[in-house]
Amino acid sequence: MQATGITFWYSRRKTGRCEHLILEIVILLGSLLLTLLLIVGSSELFTNGIEWLGQRLHLSEGVVGSVLAAVGTALPETLIPVVALVFFGKEHGAEVGMGAIAGAPFMLSSLTLGLCGLTCILCTRSGRREAGLRVKRAVIKRDLKFFIVAYALALAASFLPSAADLKYLRYIMAFGLLFIYPYYLYVSFRHEGEVGEEPEQLYISRALQPVFDFGSLKLRLIVPQVLLGLAGITGGAYFFIHYIQDLAHYMNVPPLLLSLIVSPIATEAPEKINSIIWLRAKKDTLAIGNVTGALVFQSCFPVAFGVAFTAWTLDLGTFVSGVVAVISAVVYYSLLKFDRLRPQHLLCGMFVYLGTIGAIIGFELYKKSIF
């Protein structure tokens, strides 16, 4: 893998000295920081705009978080496996694609929800919010239920025969997964609740108010702000991935581990940042729904693409990450059912993520030592 941007320019210099390697790493870390700032700023624009869009369309917080915000922020990581499989299939495209497909739900259900729990705990200790979670249980339970069913079917699809004359079985499974999401949307809008409280002033309106008086025509400002935020998130995630890949290249990370572990760090950043912003603003249903809604989306569209257009034979590490994602969702669903879900429970997801990643890396190193 070749370095990108400024890193590529430096990598062509025949220095061979340690200080130049350090300089390359410093440039990469600086680029990562600037890109992260872009994602944070764009996420702030997006969350503010998407709340106003929900207000103008008279949508509930559950629909805004689980559908509008989730689909918007899930687009970057959805495109990665598609691009990898379509354009790089002959190289490591299949590995990268399947790893990215499995890596997104795994990280969302463990690390991202864990960060939500950590944010709640830290904000409670600093006095920014009250203790505990205040979510609409029906909304989050609905999302987790759809995810558990869809992703369990996706894991089961890896055991389907790969013979050419039985390929239709995979197409049937892929079509079934695609059908789940429209039904999820139907259920979500049918059980729509109350519209949330009015958010703070639209940022674009605030910036242009001294010059223009827009009156009640805020929809003309809401949509551009949402699109601008989404463009910044997508572009930031794209460059973030390239810089992360450069660092992974120095560490000689295998393609599967890169896609399963490294890529989702960037592509799931919008969900993480959006949820943190909403949790600090005490909008728990929007925050958690953004993650659980993305789980449903990720378990349908990218997975259906993988089942239909790849061999979909998951190696042990990828399969384990999928099983962990489903088990995590089942645990959270059970806690919600009995009204026992607390930020401390979500925080455990971070330890589950680190433990699973450690086991996968350890297994890969063990295989290398044998062969």
Task: Sum up the structure in keywords.
mainly alpha, A middle domain of Talin 1
Describe this structure in a few short sentences.
The protein has 371 residues and is mainly alpha-helical. Helices cover 79% and strands 0% of the residues.
Overall description:
This protein has 13 helices and no strands. It is an all-alpha fold and 371 residues long. The protein has one domain: NCX, central ion-binding region (A middle domain of Talin 1), CATH 1.20.1420.30. It is globular, with a radius of gyration of 21 Å.
In terms of topology, how is this protein built?
Blueprint: H1 5-11, H2 18-56, H3 61-87, H4 89-125, H5 137-157, H6 167-190, H7 203-208, H8 219-250, H9 255-267, H10 269-280, H11 284-309, H12 316-337, H13 343-370
Helix pairs in contact: 1-2, 2-3, 2-8, 2-10, 3-4, 3-8, 3-11, 4-9, 4-10, 4-11, 4-12, 4-13, 5-6, 5-11, 5-12, 6-11, 8-9, 10-11, 12-13
Helix percentage range = over 70%
Specify the overall morphology. Answer: globular
What's the CATH first level? Mainly Alpha
Percent strand? under 5%
Q: Number of folding domains?
A: 1
Radius of gyration: 21 Å
Number of helices: 13
CATH topology annotation: A middle domain of Talin 1
**What's the architecture in CATH terms?**
Up-down Bundle
What is the H-and-E element order? Answer: HHHHHHHHHHHHH
Contiguous uncertain segments of 5+ residues:
1-15
In round numbers, the mean pLDDT is 78
